[in-house]
Amino acid sequence: MLKKEYPKITNAEILMVGDSIEKDIAPAKKLGLKTALAKYGQKTPETGSADYQLLEFKGIIDIVKSLQ
Q: What distance in Å separates the CA atoms of residue 29 and residue 20, rounded to the nearest whole number?
């Protein structure tokens, strides 16, 4: 859907935020997206990693600023 709105966007320019390594982060990494794990939303710890970790939602602001 995002590519319909912004056809020139690349996967490397997209940030996927999710609270599950298995369901959110791993699939996004396979597509070449940047990833941020929302630790504040995790119900159980998982193995694996994301490019960034969020302890609270407002941390996304710092991530976006660092990517610009």
A: 12
3-state helix, strand, coil in the chain (%, to 5): 45, 20, 35
Instruction: Provide the terminal-to-terminal Cα distance of the chain, rounded to the nearest Å.
Output: 22
Give the global pTM: 0.87
Amino acid in position 63: I
Element (H, E) at 30: helix 26-30
Mapping DSSP to helix (H, G, I), strand (E, B) and coil, where does residue 67 land? Answer: helix
On whether the CB atoms of residues 12 and 34 are closer than 8 A, the answer is yes
Q: Hey, what domains does the chain have and what are their CATH numbers? A: 10-67 (3.40.50.1000)
Q: What is the pLDDT along the chain (68 residues), one digit of tens a residue?
A: 888 999 999 999 999 999 999 999 999 999 999 999 999 988 888 889 999 999 999 999 999 999 88
